[in-house]
Design brief:
The structure is a single chain. This protein is 34% helix and 17% strand. It contains ten helices and eight strands. It has an eight-stranded mixed sheet with strand order 1-2-4-3-5-6-7-8, with helices on both faces. α7 (188-194) links the parallel β6 and β7 (216-221). α1 (3-17) packs antiparallel against α2 (23-33).
Length: 291
Amino acid sequence: MNTIVTKLLALLAVSSLLSACSSTGLVVLNGVVKPEHPQSISKNLAYGEQAWQHLDVYPSKQETSPVVMFIYGGGWDSGSKSQYFFAANAFVERGYTVVVPDYVKYPDGKFPTFVEDGAKAFEWTKKNIANFNGDPDNIFIVGHSAGAHTGALLSTDARYLADVGFKKSDIRGFAGMAGPYGFTPKEKKYAAIFAPESNYPKMKAMNFVDGTEPPMLLMHGMKDKIVDILNKDALLDKLDQAKVANQNIEYEGVSHVGLLLKLHPWFDKKHQAADDIDAFFTPLIIDDRRS
């Protein structure tokens, strides 16, 4: 079967399977990228003692490179690092070493445990990434959906990184893709994940913005029916008020999952999210030694 036919069949499969980031759809996405973009991966490295506290590292092809810690979404109750080869590949191809951690899922854990896992994964990255061609002084965080929510809290609520011996300024920059930064749980499942109600103010990233945050790029699809764009706008307002460097990108005709697909090489190169993120991060890199 020729390459064009294979791609068309894969795209048809993805379009029918990825309406909610299905595991099967992600397997298809990875399966068609891996043969064209082979990567060296150090898998299942422990960043804690719990069974889920493992991460994968995709070393850059450069001797020393900036680092992206990619936090995937999945509604806080699903997802796996093994499903996001295509996302890691997008940043490796642009000169980054990439870390993709797993984290606790509901019902095994609830808020704020998954954010605490993110902080521990960051700690591991800061202390160990030099062994994988990564520069510990240039660590960026990228997150999609629930992962963007976690990334935003790591970037705003200083307590999480302080608990592992670091501070918000240790994050060089944050890129949030369709993050529910300020939502209030109403569905039964989400209410259970974030209960009790006294936690609700603590789950809203904008409540912690104080002007010491790293620069932030907030991205949203204009056809997103899962996470309201008001989440992005509310956080941007707080960043502006605190004079935190930020950029706002809105993608016309793009859905919640469609924004994630913009990290895949087969989807709409005109506004590929990885290019936009790289363009935002590049001026922030200290001593850029990429060739």
